[in-house]
Structure formats: C-alpha cells, structure tokens
Specification:
Layout lengths: L5 E4 L5 E2 L2 E2 L4 H5 L4 H18 L8 E3 L13 H10 L1 E7 L3 H12 L4 E4 L7 H5 L6 E4 L7 E2 L7 H6 L2 H10 L4 E3 L4 E4 L4 H13 L3 E3 L4 E6 L3 E5 L2 E10 L14 H8 L8 E3 L3 E2 L2 H7 L6 E9 L5 H6 L3 E7 L3 E3 L1 H7 L7 E5 L6 H10 L7 H5 L5 H11 L2 H4 L8 H12 L1 E3 L3 E2 L7 E3 L20 E3 L7 E2 L4 H16 L1
Parallel strand pairs: 5-6, 5-14, 6-11, 14-24
Antiparallel strand pairs: 1-4, 2-3, 7-10, 8-25, 9-10, 12-13, 13-14, 15-23, 16-19, 16-22, 17-18, 17-20, 18-19, 20-21
Bound molecules: dihydroflavine-adenine dinucleotide.
Length: 491
C-alpha cells in the first residue's frame, strides 16, 4: 500500500496521526514501512527545499490512514539520509507510456524510483489513444514497422520485450482485448484500464510519483540533480521519457530534446507523423464536397519522379483513405504521411492491386455493354467519389461514349490514373493533429541494449523522444514498452 505524505503546515512540533514525534524521530520512523517512508521523503524533501532549508527546522506532517501502513522496520539512517537529500536510484521524467512502464519494472527490480511529470493527469496520450480503447500493441510488430535514421536500432529492445510479453501483462490484469484488424489489439472497454494497470505496476514497484511538478534544471556531477518546482532530487540514473510534440493539449513538450541538447546529444530533424494531409484549393474544389467519403486503396507517397530502384523500396499501405474538409486522412493516409516529404505526391491505387487495363478490358467485353464508366467504377469505390473522379479524369470527348468506343489513348490514360491517382498535398495538419513525432534523439548516440547515452553515463532516453517511430496500429506503444523494458533492466 503506497501512501502519500501530505504536508499541511509548519509548527513547533512534527505530528503524525496526532502524535508529536520530533525530536523522537527514531522511535516513530521505525514503525513506518519502506513505501511510505519514501513517499514521505519525497514530500519532506520537496517541502524542506521550499520552506525549511534548515533540516532541523520543525515541520508538521499529517499522515493519513496511519492504520493502513504495515509495520516494517527500516534503517533510520537510510530514511534520514533520503529525507535530507531526496535520493533515488533513478529519476524518470515523463509519466506516459514509456516512463510509467520503465518505473514499474525498475521498481520491481528493487530500484528506488522517482517518476516526475508536469501534468495533472498521467498518461493522457494513452487515454485518448485508439479512439479511447488504446491500440496497445500489434502482434506483427517487427523492426520493419519502424522508421529511424538507423532502422536496426530498435531490433534489440523489440526482440527482448515482445507483443506477447505485453499481452501476458494485460491478461494478468484481466483486461479484455480484441484484434480489430491487421494484428492491432485494442481494449474491449477503455484505455483507462491500461493507465490503471501501469499505475498498479508502479505501486508494485514502490515507485514515488511527483506530479504535477515542473523540472527547472538538471545538473550532473557524480549524480544527476533534478531541481523541480517541488524540491531537489538526486539519482545515479536519469531516464528521459517525455515523448514527442504531438497534441500539445495532452502535456506534450519538446523538453526531452532540450535535455538531449544540454548534454550535447544530437537530435535528428523533427516533423509531424501519422498526420492528416492538406490539399490545395483546386483539389478541394474537386473533392471537398466529398468530405467524409472513405475508400479502400493501396497508397504510397513519392516524389513525382522516382527512380526504378526507389520504386521497389517504397512502402505501400492497403487500408482505408478518407476525404475530409481539409484534405486527406484515414489510416492509409496517416501511414503514408510518415513517408511523405514536402513536395511529394500521394498516390492511390483505386483498384487495390488489380491491373486497370485488365479491368477495363473486362468491362468492355461485358454484355450488356457498359455505357457509364462512372457507374462501373461505383462497383469499386463509393458512388459519389466515382462520379467526381470520372468527371475529373475522363475527357469530355470520352465521357458521353460507351466504354466500348473509347480509343486506345483514352483507355491507357484512365488505366494509368486508376492504378496511380496522384494528389499533391500542400502540407500536413501539424502537431495539433499528429499522432507522433518523427525524428528525435539520435540513435547513433545511444546504446541499443540499454538506451543509455554513449557519452553520458547514467542518462537514458526511451519511448517516442528517441528517433524511432512506428506505423499506425499499436507499434508506437510497443516501442514505448520495449524501450522502457530494455532501459529498466539496466538501471
Ligand atoms: P507520452 O507522450 O506517452 O508521455 C510523455 C510524458 O511526458 C507525458 O505524461 C507528459 O506529460 C510528460 N512530459 C512532457 N514534457 C514534460 C516536461 N517538460 N516535464 C515533465 N513531464 C513532461 N500509439 C499506439 O501504439 N496505439 C494507439 O492507439 C495510439 N493512438 C494515439 C492517438 C493519439 C491521438 C496520439 C496523439 C497518439 C497515439 N499513439 C498511439 C502514439 C502513442 O500515444 C505514443 O507514441 C506514446 O504515448 C509514446 O509514449 P511516451 O511514453 O514516449 O510518451
């Protein structure tokens, strides 16, 4: 049972559960369990640095539910030492997916962990993820599903903590889940269950939470000294788990990148990923009225001119795309947004891999004769899109003719467009609408086994703040769990 010590004022004596115990500190603290004492340490240290820099100054403490505290002897000297210095084995900044998981695992290995977050509510991104049901992993996760300047970097962590490991944990906590599509596992009920599970795991690891608290400065001598709005704490290890920049309203900041820069660790260029794309006015005039129309497609992003070699390397996604009042969205578009660079086209195969020449030949051979191309196309994509697309792509000369009367050029042009309908987005909708941040702490500067900075002993970066970004579909959480587990093993 983890307790929070609440400091409620100053006085001439220090009281616990109605008992006055300073200066008889030894007697009383021998009756306090380790969990509790650490919570108390954190609070007292925080209190002391703010109001009572003199360690012998009297303070008043209200110990709530003292009857629930199990009786366990602890060394008073250790307690007193911690009280005076706010000492931990590890301090983790960022209590999101990676931070909480790392704290729980390190704590369960016996490490004394302090988890700091500036947010009032923990795990906000988990809460809003997967439409409120958290797509917490993907059973097919492999290094091929991740983008990074070093695509091999994620291998070790992903291999050591697999989707199956996380599924076992979810099952242990009796959280119902289901596969929605393409290996994506979602909670049956609510994302809150994953947050509660992480908090319970942290409790099992006797992790101390400090939130909301702002980190004001970090220094490193023999230990890391973290100065916060609620006092100074020190630890041998510092883990940065502050995530990326997307959805600032959830508490996202670029603080992790700043910490990297403070320690002269490079950060690769950052940009919004898994993000809807905007279309220019002319495209919106053609397709804007179709906002809300979704279609199955195979999509990829590419510069207009791509070499044959590049073509074989490009990544295609077969999923639904969605036309919106701003441009393009839906899973297929979010996926390719990770591969899209300014100036690139987004290319849709409306026939999902079927050769359009064959399809047109079959239509032309059909009896009775196919008179309306748009009607035939409506068998493949939604009718409103079929009509708008036919209007935009079939020249007026061909539009009124039966398909059987189209000439070779008309057929070839339409076939090409059907298999590769290219649109040129004007940009992304930015971090406000993005699910992730591409780029991050340079993986060349980190150990792939421990996520520790090669040049700064004891400094680790985990989760999204690192230059490892997953596809849509549970991959980003799997990276958060796997990188956290790898780090926790080493701290
Ligand atoms: P995360 O963002 O989870 O945590 C970072 C923590 O650091 C936060 O608690 C924040 O408050 C804290 N912090 C930031 N700055 C700080 C500072 N200066 N001081 C102190 N604390 C600070 N992925 C997936 O696999 N499946 C899914 O279903 C979804 N769905 C989804 C929906 C939406 C709308 C978004 C925006 C994102 C997703 N994702 C997702 C992505 C997933 O949420 C993301 O990759 C992980 O949460 C990353 O975990 P981290 O722990 O690295 O960062």
């Amino acid at each position: 049972m983890q307790q929070k010590a609440r400091i409620w004022g100053k006085g001439s004596s220090c009281r616990a559960g109605g008992l006055t115990f300073l200066p008889q500190i030894t007697q009383i603290f021998q009756l306090i369990c380790a969990d509790f004492s650490r919570a108390l340490c954190a609070s007292l240290a925080s209190y002391r640095s703010t109001f009572a820099p003199n360690p012998f100054q009297e303070i008043s403490v209200n110990l709530r539910s003292i009857s629930e505290i199990s009786v366990k002897k602890i060394a008073v000297s250790r307690f007193y030492n911690a009280l005076m210095q706010g000492n931990y084995d590890a301090i983790i900044i960022g209590a999101g997916a990676a931070g909480m998981f790392c704290a729980a695992r390190a704590g369960q290995r016996g490490r004394r962990v302090l988890l700091i977050d500036h947010a009032e509510k923990l795990g906000e991104k988990i809460r809003i993820s997967g439409g409120g049901r958290c797509n917490f992993t993907n059973i097919h996760a492999s290094p091929a599903n991740f983008l990074s300047q070093n695509p091999h970097f994620c291998r070790s962590a992903l291999a050591r903590y697999t989707p199956n490991d996380f599924i076992k944990l979810v099952a242990k906590h009796r959280i119902g889940y289901h596969e929605k599509t393409l290996g994506q596992l979602f909670c049956d009920e609510s994302s809150q269950q994953i947050i509660d599970m992480l908090v319970d795991e942290c409790k099992a690891g006797k992790v101390d939470f400090l939130h909301p608290a702002t980190v004001q400065s970090i220094e490193k001598n023999d230990r890391f000294r973290v100065n916060t709005s609620r006092g100074e704490f020190s630890a041998e290890k510092l883990v940065v788990a502050t995530g990326g920049l997307s959805i600032p309203a959830t508490g996202a900041t670029g603080f992790g990148y700043e910490i990297a820069k403070q320690f002269e660790i490079t950060v690769t260029p950052l940009r919004a990923g898994l993000v809807p794309l905007a279309l220019d006015a002319p495209e919106m005039e053609r397709y804007g009225m179709l906002s809300g129309v979704a279609f199955e497609t195979i999509a990829h992003a590419a510069p207009r001119e791509v070499s044959a070699k590049k073509k074989t390397e490009r990544v295609n996604f077969r999923e639904a795309a969605l036309l919106t009042h701003r441009g393009l969205s839906g899973p297929a578009v979010l996926q390719i947004s990770n591969y899209w660079n300014a100036g690139d086209e987004v290319v849709f195969d409306l026939l999902c891999g079927r050769d359009a020449n064959d399809w047109l030949a079959e239509l032309r051979a059909r009896r009775p004769i196919v008179t309306s191309f748009a009607k035939a196309l409506a068998d493949v994509i939604p009718q409103r899109l079929a009509e708008a697309w036919a209007h935009a792509h079939i020249p007026a000369t061909a539009r009124d003719k039966s398909l059987a009367d189209w000439n070779k050029t008309e057929l070839a042009n339409v076939a090409r467009e059907l298999n590769a309908w290219a649109l040129k987005p004007s940009g992304t909708l930015g971090y406000k609408k993005a699910e992730v941040t591409l780029g991050g702490v340079d993986t060349r500067k980190l150990s792939q086994q421990t996520l520790e900075a090669k040049r700064v002993a004891g400094l680790h970066f985990i989760g999204e703040v690192v230059d490892v970004t997953g596809w849509l579909g549970g991959y980003n959480f799997q990276w958060a769990w796997a990188s956290a587990a790898a780090c926790a093993e080493s701290i």
